């Protein structure tokens, strides 16, 4: 059973190491290099990542864009406050949502936001107690949302975000996420241009991150965990770039667990990815054999989360937990606005 218990992925994290605010300069976060075979580590600054990428590699980035999906309004008639989190668009005006307080928002309940700029009605209760809500508005929904909505920051971030764009990657393009693919927050356009000029390919995929990312694993045996489903896309040109890299013997390096799940969901046994659109509920944990991904740039993840399990599948649970223990000792910053690590075969960590 070793590696299949939730408690096998626990580590002790002092609360003060949870990063509450992004750094002024995206590339100045710290970077821990971790050899995925030996577990050997080294400590760098994120902008040094270019020293560990090679001509002929490809970086895979998730270009999803976070929408300001958190709406604060009131229940019509009572004036009681309600918080609505947009999870998944079902039609032009209907969304699957998470509502607090849920008990007060039964089907038929009317809601008002922004003094009536946006109105809504709860139409149905669905899986996990989520609510389907139909919105009523004049104009363009995205523009109203931009005006009224807040960024849905993870529950462990208690500070208010001064600039919405800091919870957005610089290459974010397609609206649809309830959370940022945070490994990408460390890149600037300048750093990406520098990496590309070295002969490293840049492939964009899209996975719209759902709140299931933050849903804790409740079952003691991780094999009993029900994985959330997310919508992902690999465009034709990205599939070609990834496949050509693989055929030439270059490395496929994913930026973040979302890119990793997208690539592995759409790869065949030979490591070739197909272009297209799908919903994935892939759950990657130790024992999983990676088909396409060779390396991973990611942040430090929550104890006992599906994300630390994914990283452990790539680099070995003992290596990962030892590296995390070292990161705590070295006072790295953890989670969404925290520091990064790069897992790969690093022949010479210098």
Brief digest:
The chain is α/β, with parallel strands linked by helices. The protein folds into two domains: 6-66 and 163-344, QueA-like (3-Layer(aba) Sandwich); 70-148, QueA-like (Thrombin, subunit H, Beta Barrel), CATH 2.40.10.
Distance between the termini: 36 Å
Q: Which ranges are low-confidence, i.e. pLDDT below 50, for 5 or more consecutive residues?
A: none
Overall, the morphology is globular
Q: Please, what is the average pLDDT?
A: 95
Care to count the β-strands? 17
Number of domains: 2
The CATH architecture of the largest domain would be 3-Layer(aba) Sandwich
Largest sheet data: 9 strands, mixed
Could you say which structural class the secondary elements and strand pairing correspond to?
alpha/beta
Radius of gyration: 21 Å
SSE arrangement, N to C = EEEEEEEEEEHEHEEHEHEEHHE
The CATH class of the largest domain is identified as Alpha Beta
CATH topology of the largest domain: QueA-like
Strand order of the largest sheet: 2-1-17-16-14-3-12-13-15
What kind of oligomer do you see?
A: single chain
CATH superfamily of the largest domain: QueA-like
Fraction of residues in H or I helices: 10-25%
Instruction: Supply the number of helical segments.
Output: 6
- Beta-strand portion reads 25-35%
What does this structure look like?
By secondary structure, the chain is an alpha/beta fold. The chain has two domains: 6-66 and 163-344, QueA-like; 70-148, Beta Barrel (Thrombin, subunit H). Helix content is 18%, strand content 27%. The protein contains six helices and 17 strands. It has helices at 141-148, 189-197, 236-248, 257-265, 306-315, 317-329, and strands at residues 30-35, 41-45, 58-62, 64-66, 70-75, 81-89, 94-100, 110-113, 118-125, 131-136, 174-177, 201-207, 230-234, 252-255, 276-280, 295-299, 340-344. The strands form three sheets. It has a nine-stranded mixed β-sheet. Helix 5 (306-315) packs across helix 6 (317-329). The longest helix has 13 residues, at 236-248. The radius of gyration is 21 Å and the shape is globular. The protein starts with 29 loop residues before the first strand and ends in a 6-residue tail after the last strand.
């Amino acid at each position: 059973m070793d590696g299949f218990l939730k408690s096998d992925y626990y580590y002790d994290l002092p609360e003060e190491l949870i990063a509450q605010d992004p750094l002024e300069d995206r590339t100045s976060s710290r970077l821990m290099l971790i050899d995925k075979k030996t577990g050997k580590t080294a400590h760098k600054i994120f902008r040094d990542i270019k020293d560990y990428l090679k001509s002929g590699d490809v970086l895979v980035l998730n270009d999803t864009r976070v929408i300001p999906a958190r709406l604060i309004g009131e229940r019509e008639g009572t004036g009681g406050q309600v918080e609505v989190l947009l999870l998944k668009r079902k039609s032009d005006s209907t969304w699957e949502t998470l509502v607090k307080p849920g008990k007060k928002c039964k089907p038929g309940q009317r809601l008002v936001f922004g003094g009536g700029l946006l109105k809504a009605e709860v139409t149905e209760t669905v899986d996990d107690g989520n609510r389907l809500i139909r919105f009523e508005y004049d104009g363009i929904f995205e523009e109203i949302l931009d005006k009224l909505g807040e960024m849905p920051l993870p529950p462990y971030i208690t500070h208010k975000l001064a600039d919405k764009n800091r919870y957005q990657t610089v290459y974010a393009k397609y609206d649809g996420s309830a959370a940022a693919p945070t490994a990408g927050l460390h890149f600037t356009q300048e750093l990406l241009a520098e990496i590309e000029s070295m002969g490293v390919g840049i492939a964009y995929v899209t996975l719209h991150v759902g709140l299931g990312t933050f849903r804790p694993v409740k079952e003691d045996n991780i094999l009993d965990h029900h994985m959330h489903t997310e919508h992902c896309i690999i465009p034709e040109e990205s599939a070609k770039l990834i496949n050509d890299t693989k055929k030439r013997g270059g490395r496929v390096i994913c930026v973040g667990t979302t890119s990793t799940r997208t690539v592995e969901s759409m790869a065949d046994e030979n490591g070739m990815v197909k272009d297209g659109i799908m919903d994935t509920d892939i759950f990657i944990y130790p024992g999983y054999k990676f088909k396409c991904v060779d390396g991973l740039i990611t942040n430090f993840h929550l104890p006992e989360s599906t994300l630390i399990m994914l990283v452990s599948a790539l680099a070995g649970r003992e290596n990962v937990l030892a590296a995390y223990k070292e990161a705590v000792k070295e006072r790295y910053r953890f989670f969404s606005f925290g520091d990064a690590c790069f897992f790969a075969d690093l022949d010479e960590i210098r």
